[in-house]
Structures are given as structure tokens and as C-alpha cells.
Backbone:
């Protein structure tokens, strides 16, 4: 066991989790324990290579970090690799979810198994991990636990009701865990950011849809572009420092003003309709 603190990233093989894993290894310089389901094996190997290239230790475990059984297996492996009171940062970056409507129509509605899986992966497992880290005495002094969310909780995006509800539940879990872990010196927060280009998004959508997505974000964001994975990862490193110690139970807005611009577009559209009706 090294004397360096560890970062635990669940959902570490690609996308946001992968970017955070590589960044925290570089700065502030943490050993990394990652867990993933094996969907992106090449990307997982690349993350491992990037972390090891910094001189930090990397343990990448293949398994489902979104179930009670997977959490227990992962936490036991983490304890064996890192030892007690070594985890300075825990990042929950799981994205196993189902899209669809609740009521029957042109398509079959979401099944109860899909709803259960979405909530277990994107919300309940954050609690499972917090419990596992505490009961195994894995948290270092002033540890930071971080969930990830997006502006969907402020919208009614087509077919995303289950995801939105799960993210809303995650926000409530973060607040309550902040109350329970605060007296122990730990901090629990939620980081909200807009759409970033990940392998999962590129796999799901065609190049034409991706182009429309980027164009929409140019209109939504005051900066005229999408947020990047690197920007999110760099900001996470600042949340580990002493300067961010007073954040607790917070939903930190890192959308770049995306929701402000959305409101501006809606209001301007309403004014234009009113003007045309005169």
C-alpha cells in the first residue's frame, strides 16, 4: 500500500469517469481505483495506461458497480488494494439507464425492471457505495464524495423521464448523506454539467444527429459551444482541495450558463410570438 491518497471512480472506462481518472492521477496526484462493466475495454486499457504513465498506481476492476453485490465486491477489492482510510475522492459516474415513456402509446412503455435498473445504477448505488466506504473504514480524513448530474432535472426532455427522476433522487441522497457524513469531516456534493461528447453518445447517435446536438448547444450556451470532458475533469480536481472544503450538500452548477440561455431563448420566443400577433 502506498502512502498516497486514492480516488475511486465508478464508471471509469470511458467518458467523464475516464477523463476524471486520468486528471486526478496527474493533479493532485492520486492513485486510482476504477470499476467498469467491460463495455469499453479498449478505452479502459487506455485510461489505465494514462494513469500509470503519471507514476501513480491503477487498479481497474471489471464488474457492475451499480448493484449491491457489485458494490460489495468492488469495496472489498478496494480495501485489499488501498487499505483503510485511504480514499480521498469518490466519484459516481454510472450511466446505465433506460429511455422511454411511462404510458403505452406507439411504443411499449418502460417496464418495471427498466425503472428499477435505472434507479439502482444512477441513484441507489451512490448510497450503497457511501455505506460500503464507511463500514470498511476506507474514507480518508476530509474525504469528498461526488455525484454527477445534468440539467435534465430542470426540463421535460422527450423519453427521459426515468433518468430525470433518478437524478432527482440522487440529489436528495446527496443532501442527506452530506448531513450524515458532515460531522465525520467528509463532504458530499453533486456536480451538474451539460452534455459532453463521450464514446457512449457517439455510439448511440449518427453523425448528423451529433452535428445537430452541437449546433443546439452553440445556441444554448452563452460561450457558443459544448463543455468538454477535460473541463469537467479539471474542475473535479479543485473540489478535492482545501479551498472547496465548505461545499457540502451542494448541487454545483457547472453548465456554463446553459439553463440561463435556455430561459432567454424561451422568453425571446414568447416575445416574438406576441409581437407577431399584434
Residues:
Amino acid at each position: 500500500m502506498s502512502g498516497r491518497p486514492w480516488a475511486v471512480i465508478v464508471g471509469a472506462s470511458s467518458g467523464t469517469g475516464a477523463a476524471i481518472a486520468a486528471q486526478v492521477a496527474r493533479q493532485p496526484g492520486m492513485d486510482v481505483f476504477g470499476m467498469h462493466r467491460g463495455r469499453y475495454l479498449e478505452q479502459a486499457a487506455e485510461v489505465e495506461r494514462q494513469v500509470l504513465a503519471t507514476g501513480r498506481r491503477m487498479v481497474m476492476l471489471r464488474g457492475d458497480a451499480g448493484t449491491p453485490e457489485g458494490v460489495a465486491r468492488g469495496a472489498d477489492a478496494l480495501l485489499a488494494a488501498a487499505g483503510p482510510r485511504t480514499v480521498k475522492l469518490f466519484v459516481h459516474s454510472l450511466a446505465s439507464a433506460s429511455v422511454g415513456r411511462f404510458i403505452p402509446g406507439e411504443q411499449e412503455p418502460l417496464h418495471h425492471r427498466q425503472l428499477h435498473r435505472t434507479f439502482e445504477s444512477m441513484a441507489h448505488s451512490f448510497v450503497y457505495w457511501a455505506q460500503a466506504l464507511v463500514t470498511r473504514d476506507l474514507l480518508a480524513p476530509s474525504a469528498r464524495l461526488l455525484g454527477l448530474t445534468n440539467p435534465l432535472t430542470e426540463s421535460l426532455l422527450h423519453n427521459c423521464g426515468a433518468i430525470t427522476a433518478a437524478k432527482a433522487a440522487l440529489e436528495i441522497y446527496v443532501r442527506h448523506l452530506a448531513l450524515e457524513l458532515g460531522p465525520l469531516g467528509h463532504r458530499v456534493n453533486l456536480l451538474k454539467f451539460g452534455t459532453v461528447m463521450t464514446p457512449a453518445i457517439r455510439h448511440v447517435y449518427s453523425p448528423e444527429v451529433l452535428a445537430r446536438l452541437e449546433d443546439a448547444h452553440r445556441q444554448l450556451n452563452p460561450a457558443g459551444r459544448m463543455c468538454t470532458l477535460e473541463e469537467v475533469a479539471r474542475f473535479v480536481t479543485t473540489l478535492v482541495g482545501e479551498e472547496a472544503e465548505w461545499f457540502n450538500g451542494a448541487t454545483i452548477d457547472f453548465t456554463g450558463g446553459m439553463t440561463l440561455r435556455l430561459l432567454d431563448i424561451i422568453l425571446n420566443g414568447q416575445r416574438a410570438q406576441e409581437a407577431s400577433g399584434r
Observations:
- The radius of gyration is 19 Å.
- The mean pLDDT is 90.
- The chain has one domain: 6-206+228-258.
